[in-house]
Design goal:
CATH architecture of the largest domain: Orthogonal Bundle
Strand content: under 5%
Helix content: 55-70%
Order of helices and strands: HHHHHHHHH
CATH topology of the largest domain: Tetracycline Repressor, domain 2
Largest sheet: none
Number of domains: 2
CATH class of the largest domain: Mainly Alpha
Radius of gyration: 20 Å
Distance between the termini: 75 Å
Number of strands: 0
Oligomer: single chain
Number of helices: 9
Length: 218
């Protein structure tokens, strides 16, 4: 036995090792991968990335650990895929929310609502994406950080447009952006489906709160 190996420990491919997929993934393969990502996001949310092992995820989706590696190369790739899905989805939701809106007030309201609703409905994925980015390395980390900067730049553009038009008070747009985005991040941690307030109601309230903070006073 090699030094450092634990008896019975499953072999895990190195980061970047190709998954053992023969030919084009089938619909069943894609569906199972979605189930794996969903369960992994829940585990990372409740236990943390470091405390979650692949065996727990495999057991939860009814697979052997060796079979799980037909879908992913390792736990880090799984984290990367979850984060990639999250940033892709939230960016698309932002684009859809502000599409066709020209008034800075309405653009910011729609953007805040979109951001908060995403974090409420995708709380496992959203929270994991914020706190576990530190666990990514190499190309995985670079791509996620690049996509995150692109999302942040969209917000800065919305804020700067409102400041130039005189609708929003002058402030550091980047700091304002960080403050607004942190609202969504907190929602992903404390929001509970079926609670007193639904996601849409929370989003409306947060939009009112943000607008009250950035609008120019009469």
């Amino acid at each position: 036995m090699k030094a450092g190996r634990q008896p019975g420990a499953a072999e895990q491919p190195a980061v970047g090792t190709p998954r053992r997929i023969r030919g084009k993934p089938t619909a069943a393969h894609r569906d199972k991968l979605e189930e794996i990502k969903k369960e992994a996001a829940r585990c990372f949310y409740t236990l943390g990335y470091a405390a979650t092992d692949v065996r727990r995820i495999a057991d939860a989706v009814g697979l052997q650990v060796s079979t799980l590696y037909n879908y992913i190369s390792g736990k880090e790739e799984l984290l990367y895929l979850i984060m990639k899905d999250g940033i892709t989805e939230i960016a698309a939701a932002l684009d859809e929310a502000i599409d066709g809106l020209t008034d800075p007030h309405e653009r910011l309201r729609a953007a805040v609502r979109s951001h908060v609703v995403h974090h409420a409905h995708r709380r496992y994925r959203a929270w994991t994406s914020h706190v576990e980015v530190r666990s990514l390395t190499g190309d995985y980390l670079e791509e996620i950080l690049r996509k995150r900067r692109e999302y942040e730049d969209r917000w800065i553009e919305i804020l700067e447009d409102g400041m130039r038009s005189g609708v929003f008070a002058g402030a550091d747009p980047r700091l304002t952006m960080y403050a607004i985005l942190s609202i969504g991040q907190s929602v992903s941690r404390w929001y509970k489906p079926g609670g007193k307030h639904d996601a849409e109601g929370i989003a409306d309230s947060m939009a009112v709160f943000v607008l009250a903070g950035v609008l120019v006073r009469p």
